[in-house]
Amino acid sequence: MMKSCVTIALVSQIKTGPWIYWNDLESSFGKAASLGFDAVELFTPSADAISTDRLSALVDQFGLKIAAVGTGAGKVIQGLTLTDPDPVIRSRAVDFIADMIGFGASFGAPAIIGSMQGNAVPGIEKEQALSWLAEGLNTLGQQAEEKGVNLIYEPLNRYETNLINDLMTGVSFSKALRTGNVVLLADLFHMNIEEPSLADSIRLAGSSIGHVHFADSNRRPMGLGHTAMDEVAQALKDIGYAGYVSAEAFPFPTPDQAALQTIQSFQKYFC
């Protein structure tokens, strides 16, 4: 049985980004719980931005799980990526993500590596950047495994990275890693740009998928674009996916309406 999830962002630098709820953690938890979401996905400035005691209290109070924690603030705020040509910056990126892994693992939640994968910058061959990325994922995947959680790697569309843009390239890359603890994030918005068929790609990726981002073709809440969601939902059922379906979508037209649209779409396709 798939589980519903909604995003909460606490990073002021990305106010135009695709997250449903913003800033007010307690209010966002309460709204998510009242709509019937199973979990929340957190995007925080750092691993220590929220005390674990406070977060534990909110989890207990509202009966929600923490589905995953995002790491993108490491790039947005500090300019860190796993493929920066400077080894000092790559090392700092690994340290930042490792801290986020520890934070998430306190709640049984994996960390997501999306934008922090970086790019092959001018003057650097793509093969070299991919080697640095593999090095970082191997180190971090092992750390995640030691803490009892997966590490989620997210292929991004061509406008956000020039490294890995589609699920099957991600599958091949992850299977070549020394760690077996890296799973893929199937982000339906990115997939709408890169995949010939979302449903076929999901079936081919199969058990490599460990998390799903639920947004329509225009990155508005599901149901407000042209994603063939019937086919996508069937493909996820066909592979036996039982993880979180998490709304990383624009808060359109308002956060409350976006959350309602999301849970209604989740119930339509998965319940």
From TrEMBL:
* Protein name as annotated: Sugar phosphate isomerase/epimerase
The record lists the lineage as: Bacteria, Pseudomonadati, Bacteroidota, Cytophagia, Cytophagales
Q: Which InterPro entries match?
A: Sugar_Epim/Isomerase, Xyl_isomerase-like_sf, Xyl_isomerase-like_TIM-brl
Provide the Xylose isomerase-like TIM barrel domain boundaries.
30-267
Q: Which domain of life is it from?
A: Bacteria
Which PANTHER family is this protein grouped with?
3-DEHYDRO-D-GULOSIDE 4-EPIMERASE-RELATED, ISOMERASE
Key words, A-Z: Isomerase
Is the keyword Isomerase in the record? Answer: yes
